[in-house]
From TrEMBL:
Residues 13-173 form the Pyruvate/ketoisovalerate oxidoreductase catalytic domain. The keyword Translocase does not apply. Keywords: Oxidoreductase. Its EC number is 1.2.7.3. It catalyses: 2 oxidized [2Fe-2S]-[ferredoxin] + 2-oxoglutarate + CoA = succinyl-CoA + 2 reduced [2Fe-2S]-[ferredoxin] + CO2 + H(+). InterPro entries: 2-oxoacid/accept_OxRdtase_asu, Pyruvate:ferred/Flavod_OxRd, Pyrv/ketoisovalerate_OxRed_cat, Pyrv_Fd/Flavodoxin_OxRdtase_N, Pyrv_flavodox_OxRed_cen, THDP-binding, Transketo_C/PFOR_II. This is 2-oxoglutarate synthase subunit KorA.
Amino acid sequence: MAEDLNWAVGGEAGDGIDSTGKIFAQALSRAGRHVFTSKDFASRIRGGYTAYKIRTSVEQVQSVVDRLDILVALTQRTIDENLDELHEGSAIIYDGERSWEAEIPDEMTAVDVPLKSLAEEAGGAIMRNIVALGAACEITGFDVEYLDEALEKRFGGKGSKIVENNKAAARAGQEYVQENYDLDHLGYNIETTDNDYVLLNGNEAIGMGAIAAGCRFYAGYPITPATSIMEYLTGRIEDYGGHVVQAEDELSAINMSLGAARAGARSMTATSGAGIDLMTETFGLVATSETPLVIADVQRSGPSTGMPTKQEQGDLNMALYGGHGEVPRFVVAPTSITECFWKTVEAFNLAEKYQTPVFLVSDLAMSVTEQTFPPEAFDMDEVEIDRGKLVDEDEVDEWLDAQGHFRAHAVTDDGVSPRAIPGTTDAAHMSTGLEHDELGRRTEAEDERVHQVDKRNRKVETARDDEDWDYREFGDPDADNLIISWGSNEGALVEALDYLEEDGIDVHVISVPYIHPRPDLTEEIEAADETIVVECNATGQFADVIEHDVLTRVKRINKYTGVRFKADELADDITEKLSEEVPA
Protein backbone atom coordinates (compact mmCIF):
# COMPACT_ATOMS: atom_id res chain seq x y z
CA MET A 1 0.00 0.00 0.00
CA ALA A 2 1.18 3.52 -0.74
CA GLU A 3 2.16 5.58 2.28
CA ASP A 4 -0.55 8.04 3.10
CA LEU A 5 -1.73 10.42 5.78
CA ASN A 6 -5.16 10.33 7.39
CA TRP A 7 -6.52 13.55 8.90
CA ALA A 8 -9.89 14.44 10.40
CA VAL A 9 -11.73 17.30 12.06
CA GLY A 10 -14.75 16.68 14.25
CA GLY A 11 -17.23 18.60 16.35
CA GLU A 12 -20.87 19.54 16.32
CA ALA A 13 -23.00 20.50 13.32
CA GLY A 14 -22.66 24.26 12.96
CA ASP A 15 -18.98 24.29 13.99
CA GLY A 16 -17.82 24.78 10.39
CA ILE A 17 -16.52 21.21 10.07
CA ASP A 18 -17.43 20.87 6.39
CA SER A 19 -15.80 24.14 5.28
CA THR A 20 -12.68 23.34 7.32
CA GLY A 21 -12.30 19.96 5.66
CA LYS A 22 -12.89 21.37 2.19
CA ILE A 23 -10.24 24.05 2.68
CA PHE A 24 -7.64 21.49 3.73
CA ALA A 25 -8.63 19.13 0.90
CA GLN A 26 -8.25 21.95 -1.63
CA ALA A 27 -4.86 22.89 -0.18
CA LEU A 28 -3.61 19.31 -0.46
CA SER A 29 -4.92 19.07 -4.02
CA ARG A 30 -3.16 22.30 -4.99
CA ALA A 31 0.01 20.81 -3.56
CA GLY A 32 -0.19 18.00 -6.12
CA ARG A 33 -1.41 15.35 -3.69
CA HIS A 34 -4.25 12.92 -4.20
CA VAL A 35 -7.19 13.30 -1.84
CA PHE A 36 -10.13 11.12 -0.83
CA THR A 37 -12.63 12.50 1.67
CA SER A 38 -15.40 11.09 3.82
CA LYS A 39 -18.10 12.87 5.81
CA ASP A 40 -20.12 11.89 8.83
CA PHE A 41 -22.82 14.40 9.66
CA ALA A 42 -26.05 14.53 11.62
CA SER A 43 -29.48 15.28 10.14
CA ARG A 44 -29.71 18.70 11.74
CA ILE A 45 -28.40 22.23 11.23
CA ARG A 46 -26.82 22.57 14.68
CA GLY A 47 -25.79 19.98 17.26
CA GLY A 48 -24.99 16.32 16.80
CA TYR A 49 -21.63 14.83 15.93
CA THR A 50 -20.14 15.64 12.55
CA ALA A 51 -16.74 14.89 11.05
CA TYR A 52 -14.78 15.39 7.87
CA LYS A 53 -11.98 12.93 7.08
CA ILE A 54 -9.24 13.21 4.48
CA ARG A 55 -6.93 10.51 3.24
CA THR A 56 -4.09 11.91 1.16
CA SER A 57 -1.16 10.41 -0.74
CA VAL A 58 1.10 11.14 -3.70
CA GLU A 59 -0.57 8.11 -5.30
CA GLN A 60 -4.29 7.82 -6.01
CA VAL A 61 -6.45 6.75 -3.06
CA GLN A 62 -9.99 5.43 -3.51
CA SER A 63 -11.23 4.60 -0.03
CA VAL A 64 -11.08 5.52 3.61
CA VAL A 65 -9.35 3.18 6.06
CA ASP A 66 -9.53 2.48 9.81
CA ARG A 67 -6.61 4.74 10.66
CA LEU A 68 -6.29 8.35 11.81
CA ASP A 69 -2.94 10.11 12.10
CA ILE A 70 -4.03 13.68 12.86
CA LEU A 71 -7.31 14.53 14.59
CA VAL A 72 -8.62 18.04 15.20
CA ALA A 73 -11.03 17.52 18.10
CA LEU A 74 -13.44 20.34 18.88
CA THR A 75 -15.39 18.15 21.32
CA GLN A 76 -14.68 15.17 23.57
CA ARG A 77 -17.09 13.10 21.51
CA THR A 78 -14.78 13.59 18.51
CA ILE A 79 -12.04 11.78 20.41
CA ASP A 80 -14.38 9.07 21.70
CA GLU A 81 -15.87 8.41 18.25
CA ASN A 82 -12.44 7.93 16.69
CA LEU A 83 -10.59 5.97 19.37
CA ASP A 84 -10.67 2.77 17.33
CA GLU A 85 -8.89 4.51 14.43
CA LEU A 86 -6.28 6.35 16.49
CA HIS A 87 -2.93 4.69 17.09
CA GLU A 88 0.33 5.18 18.89
CA GLY A 89 1.79 8.17 17.14
CA SER A 90 -1.52 9.86 16.38
CA ALA A 91 -1.60 13.56 17.20
CA ILE A 92 -4.77 15.12 18.63
CA ILE A 93 -5.16 18.88 18.32
CA TYR A 94 -7.57 20.36 20.87
CA ASP A 95 -8.24 23.60 22.73
CA GLY A 96 -7.35 23.24 26.40
CA GLU A 97 -8.91 26.61 27.19
CA ARG A 98 -12.37 25.32 26.31
CA SER A 99 -14.72 24.31 29.10
CA TRP A 100 -14.35 20.59 28.38
CA GLU A 101 -11.32 18.71 29.66
CA ALA A 102 -9.99 16.46 26.94
CA GLU A 103 -9.44 12.81 27.83
CA ILE A 104 -6.62 11.67 25.57
CA PRO A 105 -5.05 8.20 25.82
CA ASP A 106 -1.43 8.26 26.98
CA GLU A 107 -0.10 6.65 23.82
CA MET A 108 -1.44 9.51 21.68
CA THR A 109 0.32 12.86 21.32
CA ALA A 110 -1.82 15.64 22.77
CA VAL A 111 -1.31 19.02 21.11
CA ASP A 112 -3.07 21.66 23.22
CA VAL A 113 -3.55 24.82 21.13
CA PRO A 114 -5.59 27.84 22.34
CA LEU A 115 -7.60 27.85 19.14
CA LYS A 116 -10.20 30.41 20.17
CA SER A 117 -7.74 32.86 21.75
CA LEU A 118 -5.40 32.76 18.77
CA ALA A 119 -8.33 33.20 16.40
CA GLU A 120 -9.57 36.24 18.34
CA GLU A 121 -6.12 37.80 18.09
CA ALA A 122 -6.17 37.22 14.33
CA GLY A 123 -9.55 38.87 13.89
CA GLY A 124 -12.35 36.69 15.25
CA ALA A 125 -13.15 33.51 17.21
CA ILE A 126 -14.94 32.10 14.17
CA MET A 127 -11.52 31.34 12.66
CA ARG A 128 -10.52 28.82 15.35
CA ASN A 129 -10.76 25.98 12.82
CA ILE A 130 -8.30 27.80 10.55
CA VAL A 131 -5.93 28.08 13.51
CA ALA A 132 -6.25 24.30 13.85
CA LEU A 133 -5.40 23.86 10.17
CA GLY A 134 -2.25 25.91 10.66
CA ALA A 135 -1.34 23.68 13.60
CA ALA A 136 -1.91 20.60 11.45
CA CYS A 137 0.37 22.05 8.78
CA GLU A 138 3.19 22.37 11.29
CA ILE A 139 2.71 18.85 12.65
CA THR A 140 2.69 17.29 9.19
CA GLY A 141 5.41 19.45 7.63
CA PHE A 142 2.94 20.84 5.10
CA ASP A 143 3.74 24.28 3.68
CA VAL A 144 1.11 26.71 4.99
CA GLU A 145 1.32 28.69 1.74
CA TYR A 146 -0.74 25.99 0.04
CA LEU A 147 -3.39 26.76 2.63
CA ASP A 148 -3.25 30.41 1.54
CA GLU A 149 -4.44 29.51 -1.96
CA ALA A 150 -7.37 27.52 -0.61
CA LEU A 151 -8.31 30.36 1.75
CA GLU A 152 -8.27 32.84 -1.12
CA LYS A 153 -10.62 30.62 -3.10
CA ARG A 154 -12.94 30.10 -0.12
CA PHE A 155 -13.12 33.67 1.19
CA GLY A 156 -12.06 35.79 -1.79
CA GLY A 157 -15.64 36.92 -2.39
CA LYS A 158 -15.88 38.33 1.14
CA GLY A 159 -13.08 40.84 0.73
CA SER A 160 -9.33 40.97 1.16
CA LYS A 161 -9.50 41.69 4.90
CA ILE A 162 -11.32 38.41 5.59
CA VAL A 163 -8.77 36.54 3.50
CA GLU A 164 -5.81 38.16 5.29
CA ASN A 165 -7.34 37.50 8.71
CA ASN A 166 -7.71 33.80 7.87
CA LYS A 167 -4.13 33.61 6.63
CA ALA A 168 -3.01 35.22 9.91
CA ALA A 169 -5.08 32.69 11.88
CA ALA A 170 -3.44 29.77 10.05
CA ARG A 171 0.02 31.16 10.77
CA ALA A 172 -0.86 31.72 14.41
CA GLY A 173 -1.66 28.02 14.75
CA GLN A 174 1.47 27.00 12.91
CA GLU A 175 3.73 29.25 14.97
CA TYR A 176 2.18 28.22 18.28
CA VAL A 177 2.94 24.54 17.64
CA GLN A 178 6.40 25.41 16.31
CA GLU A 179 7.26 27.37 19.44
CA ASN A 180 5.71 25.07 22.04
CA TYR A 181 6.14 21.51 20.76
CA ASP A 182 8.87 19.27 19.40
CA LEU A 183 7.00 16.71 17.31
CA ASP A 184 9.80 15.42 15.09
CA HIS A 185 9.32 11.97 16.63
CA LEU A 186 5.97 11.64 14.86
CA GLY A 187 7.78 11.55 11.54
CA TYR A 188 5.06 13.20 9.45
CA ASN A 189 6.25 15.10 6.40
CA ILE A 190 3.70 15.69 3.63
CA GLU A 191 5.41 15.40 0.26
CA THR A 192 4.23 17.77 -2.47
CA THR A 193 4.40 17.41 -6.26
CA ASP A 194 3.93 19.55 -9.36
CA ASN A 195 0.89 17.55 -10.46
CA ASP A 196 -2.31 19.37 -11.33
CA TYR A 197 -5.50 17.73 -10.08
CA VAL A 198 -9.23 18.39 -10.25
CA LEU A 199 -11.03 18.01 -6.90
CA LEU A 200 -14.75 17.28 -7.03
CA ASN A 201 -17.47 15.05 -5.60
CA GLY A 202 -19.96 12.73 -7.24
CA ASN A 203 -22.84 15.21 -7.37
CA GLU A 204 -20.61 17.83 -8.96
CA ALA A 205 -19.50 15.23 -11.52
CA ILE A 206 -23.15 14.46 -12.35
CA GLY A 207 -23.86 18.17 -12.78
CA MET A 208 -20.77 18.61 -14.95
CA GLY A 209 -21.72 15.57 -17.01
CA ALA A 210 -25.24 16.91 -17.50
CA ILE A 211 -23.97 20.20 -18.90
CA ALA A 212 -21.43 18.42 -21.11
CA ALA A 213 -24.21 16.14 -22.39
CA GLY A 214 -26.30 19.13 -23.45
CA CYS A 215 -28.79 19.21 -20.58
CA ARG A 216 -30.56 22.56 -20.74
CA PHE A 217 -33.34 22.14 -18.18
CA TYR A 218 -33.26 20.91 -14.61
CA ALA A 219 -36.10 20.93 -12.10
CA GLY A 220 -35.71 19.66 -8.56
CA TYR A 221 -36.78 20.03 -4.97
CA PRO A 222 -34.14 20.31 -2.23
CA ILE A 223 -33.47 16.98 -0.53
CA THR A 224 -30.40 15.46 1.12
CA PRO A 225 -28.12 14.31 -0.44
CA ALA A 226 -29.19 15.21 -4.01
CA THR A 227 -29.51 18.98 -3.57
CA SER A 228 -25.92 19.79 -4.49
CA ILE A 229 -26.59 18.65 -8.08
CA MET A 230 -29.04 21.53 -8.37
CA GLU A 231 -26.60 23.84 -6.58
CA TYR A 232 -23.84 22.93 -9.02
CA LEU A 233 -26.03 23.53 -12.07
CA THR A 234 -27.39 26.84 -10.80
CA GLY A 235 -25.22 29.65 -12.15
CA ARG A 236 -23.49 27.32 -14.60
CA ILE A 237 -26.16 25.87 -16.85
CA GLU A 238 -27.37 29.42 -17.60
CA ASP A 239 -24.04 30.10 -19.32
CA TYR A 240 -25.09 27.52 -21.92
CA GLY A 241 -28.65 28.77 -22.37
CA GLY A 242 -30.14 26.41 -19.80
CA HIS A 243 -32.42 26.88 -16.81
CA VAL A 244 -32.72 25.50 -13.29
CA VAL A 245 -36.11 25.57 -11.54
CA GLN A 246 -36.61 24.85 -7.85
CA ALA A 247 -40.03 23.24 -7.81
CA GLU A 248 -42.52 23.21 -4.93
CA ASP A 249 -42.23 19.44 -4.55
CA GLU A 250 -40.83 16.34 -6.23
CA LEU A 251 -43.95 15.59 -8.25
CA SER A 252 -43.84 19.07 -9.76
CA ALA A 253 -40.12 18.68 -10.43
CA ILE A 254 -40.42 15.52 -12.50
CA ASN A 255 -43.43 16.83 -14.42
CA MET A 256 -41.65 20.11 -15.20
CA SER A 257 -38.69 18.09 -16.45
CA LEU A 258 -41.05 15.91 -18.49
CA GLY A 259 -42.58 19.02 -20.07
CA ALA A 260 -39.17 20.42 -21.00
CA ALA A 261 -38.20 17.09 -22.56
CA ARG A 262 -41.44 17.04 -24.57
CA ALA A 263 -40.49 20.48 -25.87
CA GLY A 264 -37.19 19.08 -27.14
CA ALA A 265 -34.72 20.04 -24.42
CA ARG A 266 -32.37 17.56 -22.84
CA SER A 267 -33.86 17.50 -19.36
CA MET A 268 -33.31 15.88 -15.98
CA THR A 269 -34.38 15.86 -12.38
CA ALA A 270 -32.64 14.51 -9.30
CA THR A 271 -33.80 13.49 -5.86
CA SER A 272 -33.26 10.88 -3.14
CA GLY A 273 -35.28 7.87 -2.02
CA ALA A 274 -38.12 9.74 -0.36
CA GLY A 275 -38.46 11.93 -3.44
CA ILE A 276 -38.36 8.96 -5.79
CA ASP A 277 -41.42 7.63 -3.94
CA LEU A 278 -43.29 10.82 -4.85
CA MET A 279 -42.07 10.86 -8.45
CA THR A 280 -43.17 7.29 -9.11
CA GLU A 281 -46.59 8.43 -10.30
CA THR A 282 -44.96 10.00 -13.38
CA PHE A 283 -42.65 7.11 -14.35
CA GLY A 284 -45.35 5.44 -16.43
CA LEU A 285 -46.27 8.69 -18.20
CA VAL A 286 -42.62 9.21 -19.19
CA ALA A 287 -42.42 5.70 -20.63
CA THR A 288 -45.85 5.59 -22.29
CA SER A 289 -45.46 9.02 -23.89
CA GLU A 290 -41.98 7.86 -24.99
CA THR A 291 -40.27 10.93 -23.59
CA PRO A 292 -36.50 10.90 -23.02
CA LEU A 293 -35.83 11.86 -19.39
CA VAL A 294 -32.93 11.33 -16.95
CA ILE A 295 -33.95 10.77 -13.34
CA ALA A 296 -31.08 10.77 -10.82
CA ASP A 297 -31.59 9.02 -7.48
CA VAL A 298 -28.89 9.79 -4.90
CA GLN A 299 -29.69 7.07 -2.39
CA ARG A 300 -29.70 7.47 1.39
CA SER A 301 -30.80 5.37 4.36
CA GLY A 302 -34.52 4.59 4.39
CA PRO A 303 -37.33 3.71 4.49
CA SER A 304 -39.47 6.79 5.12
CA THR A 305 -37.33 9.69 6.35
CA GLY A 306 -34.82 7.09 7.56
CA MET A 307 -31.39 8.60 8.14
CA PRO A 308 -31.13 11.40 5.56
CA THR A 309 -27.40 11.95 6.00
CA LYS A 310 -26.30 8.31 6.04
CA GLN A 311 -25.17 5.87 3.36
CA GLU A 312 -27.28 3.10 1.84
CA GLN A 313 -28.03 1.40 -1.48
CA GLY A 314 -31.60 0.46 -0.73
CA ASP A 315 -33.42 1.93 -3.75
CA LEU A 316 -32.35 -0.62 -6.34
CA ASN A 317 -35.69 -2.42 -6.43
CA MET A 318 -37.49 0.91 -6.76
CA ALA A 319 -35.32 1.86 -9.74
CA LEU A 320 -35.87 -1.54 -11.35
CA TYR A 321 -39.56 -2.02 -10.66
CA GLY A 322 -41.08 1.27 -9.46
CA GLY A 323 -44.27 2.43 -11.13
CA HIS A 324 -47.57 0.69 -11.82
CA GLY A 325 -47.90 -1.47 -14.87
CA GLU A 326 -44.84 -2.44 -16.86
CA VAL A 327 -42.48 0.46 -17.43
CA PRO A 328 -39.54 -0.10 -19.81
CA ARG A 329 -36.48 1.74 -18.53
CA PHE A 330 -32.72 1.78 -18.20
CA VAL A 331 -30.95 1.74 -14.83
CA VAL A 332 -27.35 2.98 -14.78
CA ALA A 333 -25.29 3.09 -11.57
CA PRO A 334 -21.92 4.91 -11.73
CA THR A 335 -19.15 3.10 -9.87
CA SER A 336 -16.81 6.04 -9.24
CA ILE A 337 -16.79 9.82 -9.32
CA THR A 338 -15.36 9.91 -12.84
CA GLU A 339 -18.06 7.45 -13.88
CA CYS A 340 -20.65 9.85 -12.42
CA PHE A 341 -19.58 12.21 -15.21
CA TRP A 342 -19.38 9.69 -18.05
CA LYS A 343 -22.47 7.69 -17.10
CA THR A 344 -24.48 10.92 -16.90
CA VAL A 345 -23.46 11.68 -20.49
CA GLU A 346 -24.39 8.14 -21.47
CA ALA A 347 -27.73 8.38 -19.65
CA PHE A 348 -28.78 11.35 -21.79
CA ASN A 349 -27.79 9.52 -24.97
CA LEU A 350 -29.71 6.39 -23.95
CA ALA A 351 -32.77 8.45 -23.04
CA GLU A 352 -32.94 10.08 -26.47
CA LYS A 353 -31.87 7.09 -28.55
CA TYR A 354 -34.61 4.93 -27.05
CA GLN A 355 -37.10 7.60 -25.87
CA THR A 356 -37.20 5.96 -22.48
CA PRO A 357 -36.65 7.06 -18.85
CA VAL A 358 -33.14 6.45 -17.58
CA PHE A 359 -32.54 6.08 -13.87
CA LEU A 360 -29.09 7.31 -12.84
CA VAL A 361 -28.55 5.68 -9.45
CA SER A 362 -25.86 7.09 -7.16
CA ASP A 363 -25.61 7.17 -3.36
CA LEU A 364 -24.69 9.44 -0.47
CA ALA A 365 -21.14 8.14 -0.08
CA MET A 366 -20.28 9.00 -3.66
CA SER A 367 -22.29 12.22 -3.70
CA VAL A 368 -20.36 13.93 -0.88
CA THR A 369 -16.96 12.32 -1.36
CA GLU A 370 -14.38 14.67 -2.84
CA GLN A 371 -11.58 13.05 -4.78
CA THR A 372 -8.72 14.20 -6.98
CA PHE A 373 -8.34 13.35 -10.65
CA PRO A 374 -6.09 14.49 -13.49
CA PRO A 375 -7.95 16.93 -15.75
CA GLU A 376 -7.84 14.49 -18.67
CA ALA A 377 -10.22 12.21 -16.73
CA PHE A 378 -12.95 14.61 -17.91
CA ASP A 379 -11.87 15.18 -21.50
CA MET A 380 -14.72 17.15 -23.08
CA ASP A 381 -13.42 16.28 -26.55
CA GLU A 382 -14.40 12.67 -25.85
CA VAL A 383 -18.04 13.56 -25.13
CA GLU A 384 -20.38 12.35 -27.88
CA ILE A 385 -24.00 13.41 -28.26
CA ASP A 386 -26.53 11.01 -29.85
CA ARG A 387 -30.06 12.39 -30.15
CA GLY A 388 -31.48 9.27 -31.73
CA LYS A 389 -34.37 9.39 -34.23
CA LEU A 390 -34.89 13.13 -34.03
CA VAL A 391 -36.45 14.09 -37.36
CA ASP A 392 -36.48 17.44 -39.14
CA GLU A 393 -38.76 18.85 -41.85
CA ASP A 394 -36.93 16.94 -44.60
CA GLU A 395 -37.54 13.57 -42.88
CA VAL A 396 -41.14 13.98 -41.78
CA ASP A 397 -42.77 12.68 -44.99
CA GLU A 398 -41.57 9.11 -44.49
CA TRP A 399 -43.41 8.98 -41.14
CA LEU A 400 -46.82 10.26 -42.29
CA ASP A 401 -49.87 8.04 -42.70
CA ALA A 402 -52.10 8.08 -45.81
CA GLN A 403 -53.98 11.10 -44.48
CA GLY A 404 -50.78 13.05 -43.77
CA HIS A 405 -50.74 12.55 -40.00
CA PHE A 406 -47.40 12.17 -38.22
CA ARG A 407 -46.97 8.74 -36.62
CA ALA A 408 -45.23 9.77 -33.40
CA HIS A 409 -45.71 6.29 -31.96
CA ALA A 410 -45.03 4.33 -35.14
CA VAL A 411 -44.51 0.61 -34.61
CA THR A 412 -40.95 -0.18 -35.71
CA ASP A 413 -38.71 -3.22 -35.73
CA ASP A 414 -36.39 -1.75 -33.11
CA GLY A 415 -39.22 -0.33 -31.00
CA VAL A 416 -38.05 3.27 -31.44
CA SER A 417 -40.40 5.70 -33.16
CA PRO A 418 -39.48 8.95 -34.93
CA ARG A 419 -39.35 11.98 -32.63
CA ALA A 420 -40.30 15.46 -33.77
CA ILE A 421 -39.87 18.53 -31.60
CA PRO A 422 -43.07 20.61 -31.36
CA GLY A 423 -43.09 23.16 -34.14
CA THR A 424 -41.58 20.84 -36.73
CA THR A 425 -43.48 21.41 -39.97
CA ASP A 426 -46.09 18.72 -40.74
CA ALA A 427 -45.21 16.81 -37.55
CA ALA A 428 -47.99 17.98 -35.24
CA HIS A 429 -49.14 15.13 -33.03
CA MET A 430 -50.65 14.33 -29.69
CA SER A 431 -49.31 12.17 -26.89
CA THR A 432 -51.09 10.84 -23.84
CA GLY A 433 -50.66 8.58 -20.87
CA LEU A 434 -53.66 6.64 -22.05
CA GLU A 435 -52.95 3.74 -24.34
CA HIS A 436 -52.83 5.05 -27.88
CA ASP A 437 -52.35 4.12 -31.50
CA GLU A 438 -49.48 5.19 -33.76
CA LEU A 439 -50.89 8.73 -34.01
CA GLY A 440 -51.18 9.09 -30.24
CA ARG A 441 -54.97 8.79 -30.26
CA ARG A 442 -56.60 7.05 -27.29
CA THR A 443 -57.48 3.44 -27.97
CA GLU A 444 -58.59 0.29 -26.18
CA ALA A 445 -58.37 -1.90 -29.26
CA GLU A 446 -56.74 -5.18 -28.33
CA ASP A 447 -54.40 -5.37 -31.32
CA GLU A 448 -53.28 -1.73 -30.90
CA ARG A 449 -52.62 -2.37 -27.21
CA VAL A 450 -50.44 -5.38 -27.95
CA HIS A 451 -48.56 -3.57 -30.74
CA GLN A 452 -47.71 -0.59 -28.50
CA VAL A 453 -46.72 -2.61 -25.43
CA ASP A 454 -44.51 -4.88 -27.51
CA LYS A 455 -43.02 -1.88 -29.30
CA ARG A 456 -42.09 -0.09 -26.07
CA ASN A 457 -40.60 -3.23 -24.55
CA ARG A 458 -38.68 -3.91 -27.76
CA LYS A 459 -36.57 -0.80 -27.12
CA VAL A 460 -34.85 -2.44 -24.17
CA GLU A 461 -34.23 -5.62 -26.15
CA THR A 462 -32.81 -3.58 -29.04
CA ALA A 463 -30.54 -1.73 -26.63
CA ARG A 464 -29.51 -5.01 -25.01
CA ASP A 465 -28.15 -6.13 -28.38
CA ASP A 466 -26.82 -2.81 -29.69
CA GLU A 467 -25.19 -1.25 -26.62
CA ASP A 468 -22.13 -2.36 -24.65
CA TRP A 469 -23.46 -3.44 -21.23
CA ASP A 470 -20.04 -4.29 -19.88
CA TYR A 471 -18.52 -4.33 -16.42
CA ARG A 472 -15.31 -3.03 -14.88
CA GLU A 473 -12.89 -5.60 -13.51
CA PHE A 474 -9.91 -5.56 -11.17
CA GLY A 475 -7.56 -8.04 -9.58
CA ASP A 476 -6.78 -11.46 -11.06
CA PRO A 477 -9.35 -12.54 -13.71
CA ASP A 478 -8.23 -16.15 -13.22
CA ALA A 479 -8.70 -16.13 -9.44
CA ASP A 480 -11.02 -18.71 -7.87
CA ASN A 481 -12.68 -16.05 -5.72
CA LEU A 482 -15.10 -13.68 -7.45
CA ILE A 483 -16.39 -10.48 -5.80
CA ILE A 484 -19.25 -8.60 -7.48
CA SER A 485 -20.38 -5.11 -6.53
CA TRP A 486 -22.29 -2.13 -7.88
CA GLY A 487 -22.20 1.60 -7.24
CA SER A 488 -19.78 3.32 -4.89
CA ASN A 489 -18.30 0.14 -3.37
CA GLU A 490 -15.76 -0.14 -6.19
CA GLY A 491 -13.05 2.05 -4.66
CA ALA A 492 -13.02 0.22 -1.33
CA LEU A 493 -12.96 -3.13 -3.14
CA VAL A 494 -10.05 -2.12 -5.36
CA GLU A 495 -7.97 -1.09 -2.36
CA ALA A 496 -9.06 -4.17 -0.40
CA LEU A 497 -7.26 -6.24 -3.05
CA ASP A 498 -3.92 -5.08 -1.64
CA TYR A 499 -4.81 -6.27 1.87
CA LEU A 500 -6.09 -9.59 0.53
CA GLU A 501 -2.97 -10.09 -1.55
CA GLU A 502 -0.84 -9.59 1.55
CA ASP A 503 -2.75 -12.48 3.11
CA GLY A 504 -2.27 -14.65 0.02
CA ILE A 505 -5.86 -14.39 -1.19
CA ASP A 506 -6.36 -13.86 -4.93
CA VAL A 507 -9.56 -12.18 -5.95
CA HIS A 508 -11.29 -11.22 -9.19
CA VAL A 509 -13.46 -8.11 -8.75
CA ILE A 510 -16.34 -7.26 -11.08
CA SER A 511 -17.89 -3.84 -10.64
CA VAL A 512 -21.21 -3.49 -12.47
CA PRO A 513 -22.38 -0.03 -13.65
CA TYR A 514 -25.38 -1.30 -15.64
CA ILE A 515 -28.26 -2.72 -13.63
CA HIS A 516 -30.87 -2.93 -16.41
CA PRO A 517 -30.00 -4.17 -18.90
CA ARG A 518 -26.95 -5.72 -17.24
CA PRO A 519 -24.10 -7.97 -18.26
CA ASP A 520 -24.64 -11.72 -18.14
CA LEU A 521 -22.27 -13.00 -15.44
CA THR A 522 -23.18 -16.67 -15.76
CA GLU A 523 -19.81 -17.78 -17.16
CA GLU A 524 -17.83 -15.75 -14.62
CA ILE A 525 -19.81 -17.14 -11.68
CA GLU A 526 -19.66 -20.73 -12.96
CA ALA A 527 -15.88 -20.44 -13.35
CA ALA A 528 -15.40 -19.25 -9.76
CA ASP A 529 -15.22 -21.46 -6.68
CA GLU A 530 -16.68 -18.71 -4.51
CA THR A 531 -18.84 -15.71 -5.45
CA ILE A 532 -19.61 -12.86 -3.04
CA VAL A 533 -21.87 -9.88 -3.77
CA VAL A 534 -21.02 -6.72 -1.83
CA GLU A 535 -23.57 -3.94 -1.30
CA CYS A 536 -24.82 -1.37 1.22
CA ASN A 537 -28.28 -2.68 2.07
CA ALA A 538 -29.80 -5.27 4.39
CA THR A 539 -31.54 -7.62 1.97
CA GLY A 540 -28.99 -8.00 -0.82
CA GLN A 541 -31.07 -6.50 -3.62
CA PHE A 542 -28.38 -6.84 -6.28
CA ALA A 543 -27.48 -10.33 -5.04
CA ASP A 544 -31.13 -11.28 -5.59
CA VAL A 545 -30.93 -10.02 -9.17
CA ILE A 546 -27.72 -11.95 -9.80
CA GLU A 547 -29.16 -15.16 -8.37
CA HIS A 548 -32.24 -14.73 -10.56
CA ASP A 549 -30.03 -14.37 -13.63
CA VAL A 550 -27.68 -17.29 -13.06
CA LEU A 551 -29.88 -19.61 -10.94
CA THR A 552 -27.01 -20.05 -8.49
CA ARG A 553 -26.82 -19.03 -4.83
CA VAL A 554 -24.10 -16.53 -3.93
CA LYS A 555 -22.60 -15.33 -0.68
CA ARG A 556 -23.39 -11.82 0.49
CA ILE A 557 -21.69 -9.02 2.37
CA ASN A 558 -24.29 -6.45 3.37
CA LYS A 559 -23.59 -3.27 5.31
CA TYR A 560 -26.50 -1.12 6.44
CA THR A 561 -25.11 0.80 9.41
CA GLY A 562 -25.34 4.07 7.49
CA VAL A 563 -21.56 4.13 6.98
CA ARG A 564 -19.71 3.27 3.74
CA PHE A 565 -17.32 0.35 3.36
CA LYS A 566 -13.68 0.89 4.27
CA ALA A 567 -10.95 -0.93 2.37
CA ASP A 568 -9.28 -2.71 5.28
CA GLU A 569 -12.61 -3.54 6.91
CA LEU A 570 -13.95 -4.96 3.64
CA ALA A 571 -10.86 -7.12 3.20
CA ASP A 572 -11.53 -8.66 6.63
CA ASP A 573 -15.19 -9.22 5.73
CA ILE A 574 -14.24 -10.96 2.49
CA THR A 575 -11.71 -13.20 4.26
CA GLU A 576 -14.33 -14.23 6.82
CA LYS A 577 -17.06 -14.77 4.22
CA LEU A 578 -14.84 -17.01 2.09
CA SER A 579 -14.61 -19.45 5.00
CA GLU A 580 -18.40 -19.77 5.29
CA GLU A 581 -20.61 -22.29 3.52
CA VAL A 582 -22.71 -21.16 0.55
CA PRO A 583 -26.30 -20.60 1.75
CA ALA A 584 -28.74 -23.35 0.83
